[in-house]
Specification:
The protein folds into two domains: 40 residues; 147 residues, Glucose Permease (Domain IIA) (Distorted Sandwich). Helix content is 20%, strand content 37%. It has an eight-stranded antiparallel beta sheet, with no helix packed on it. The termini are far apart.
Length: 208
């Protein structure tokens, strides 16, 4: 479990105990108990079997793929996938491949519905650029209508392994991933994916 779960969960349990002691009512204590159970569940952080095949790029988040497209960037064309997380998904974000963090940029913004196409532009977000030495992958943690806090566990210069935990978005949100256009896509729009476990694409290997 992410430590935030203990903070919220035990906090609401304390409220439940206080209400029971001060009012003598078990009924009043039920609501904070239910909220405590929800937060313990929401901030779950399950272990995942990380794929180990060469060139595999794993999903940075749990959720449903709602956009697959090729986009032009300052570095050239990129394959872009957008993953929408609802409130029932695990919200821990993971590294798509082994790499070194070359850039972390946080930007304040709005909190419109994460399924809106312009949410990647106008919403509060955190961009993490990962350099493997042979390719670059970018993930964007994008706040949504309910998401009000983006947490990043890494900083520039950190080396991360494929599937390693790199951040967290609290409540419903969206994660975009940009990868080389040469990557062979393994998923499609509408698929549900798991962070660190689902292979999104495979990069061509030298000599293959």
């Amino acid at each position: 479990m992410v430590k935030d779960g203990y903070f919220y969960g035990f906090g609401f349990l304390a409220v439940a105990v206080a209400l029971r002691v001060l009012t003598g009512s078990t009924g009043l204590a039920i609501v904070p108990v239910v909220l405590a159970v929800f937060f313990f569940w929401f901030f779950r952080d399950p272990n995942r079997a990380i794929p180990s095949g060469p060139g595999q790029i794993v999903s940075p988040a749990d959720g449903k793929i709602h956009e697959v497209d090729f986009v032009e960037t300052a570095q050239g064309p990129r394959l872009k996938l957008s993953i929408f997380l609802n409130v029932f998904d695990v919200h821990v974000n993971r590294a798509p491949s082994e790499s070194v963090i070359s850039e972390v940029t946080y930007r304040k913004g709005l909190f419109v519905n994460a399924m809106r196409q312009d949410s990647a532009v106008v919403n509060e977000q955190n961009m993490i650029v990962m350099d493997s030495g042979t390719h670059e992958i970018v993930i964007k943690q994008i706040a949504g209508l309910l998401a009000r806090r983006i947490v990043c566990f890494v900083k520039v210069g950190d080396r991360v392994k494929r599937g390693e935990r790199v951040g967290l978005i609290k409540f419903g949100s969206r994660v975009d991933i940009l990868m080389p256009e040469s990557a062979a896509l393994q998923v499609k729009k509408g698929d549900r994916v798991k962070g660190g476990a689902t292979v999104l694409a495979v990069l061509p290997q030298a000599g293959a």
